[in-house]
Amino acid sequence: MRSVLLYLAGAGWSRSLVTNFFLARRAARRFVAGETLDEAVAAARQLNTKGMMVSLDHLGESVHNKEAALSATADYLVLLDAIYANKLDANVSVKLTQLGLDIDESLCVDNMRRILAKASEIGTTVNIDMESSAYTEITLKIFRQLNQEYQNIGTVIQAYLYRSEGDMQQLAQEGGVIRLCKGAYKEPADVAFPEKADVDANYMKLTKAYLSEENRQHRAYLKVATHDPKIIQETIDYAEANGVKPTEFEFQMLYGIRTQTQLELVEKGYRMRVYVPYGTEWYPYFMRRLAERPANIWFIMKNLFTK
Ligand SMILES: Cc1cc2nc3c(=O)[nH]c(=O)nc-3n(C[C@H](O)[C@H](O)[C@H](O)COP(=O)(O)OP(=O)(O)OC[C@H]3O[C@@H](n4cnc5c(N)ncnc54)[C@H](O)[C@@H]3O)c2cc1C
Hints:
Helix content is about 50%, strand content about 15%. It is an alpha/beta fold. It has one domain: TIM Barrel (Alpha-Beta Barrel), CATH 3.20.20. An 8-stranded parallel barrel has the order 1-2-3-4-5-6-7-8, surrounded by 7 helices. The model has no long low-confidence stretch (mean pLDDT about 95). The structure holds flavin-adenine dinucleotide.
């Protein structure tokens, strides 16, 4: 089921079928704050009042013409203005294929520079999301290049990739700001652990290593992005046992998932950032959320047809 949903996430025919189906649009609202900037600002404001930071994602990926990449960049600049105007405690998350990576690397880097400069002007940060393994190398290369020029940038490492241990070791030495997640794409067994238990074990191994005292001295900062209660508890236990202060790392979760746990972590004094996606291009994001937990399909169907 996971494979089928991840295949459909990239299939154009399925995208137009699903996005034009109004019940699907309603279902997507469980994971997406809305289609407009105003709805995203309202969701972010509400989370801020509950003591949570936010990362706003103006949904979009895999654009194949320059105009679309420039338009996505312009949308991010408007979003940053809105963060400033509304005094939100929020940063932004971007995908490099949304900014033109598949068209021209230098176009993508220039677009990133414009977003980073604006974010820096308003005192916030930009996080580069990680896409499929076809983009890992180039994403890390662009991250490193821009990390030399800007102080306000971070990226993502996926625990399911075999290469991530080596990447994290190097990034820690470079003082990288890293969001660690399990990984949401369909990957072959020669690049990613096929078994969930191995992914979970690797996640914990990478978390502990990144939070070591030596790495923290290099100003390496970790964002523990998971809804997995076991990993969250183990991270807390490890931090407590090793003198890692709650201000020296943060937890991150996705909008609409485990909202009670999000609140509980804030109440316990942990930094919590919620990833808030919005926009009309919600289809692949929505399908990846269904693929993570196919039981969501039945849950959503039940809710749609019983309301
Ligand atoms: C802030 C954030 C940013 C992310 N950025 C990226 C990125 O840049 N690149 C990337 O590849 N992936 C990204 N992801 C997705 C990530 O890789 C995983 O696919 C996703 O978080 C599910 O894994 P998990 O760690 O929650 O653990 P799992 O073991 O999958 O889930 C643990 C528990 O969390 C709950 N849960 C998890 N997913 C769902 C869901 N969809 N619906 C309902 N309940 C759920 C369930 O209760 C489940 O039992 C991000 C995740 C987060 C939280």
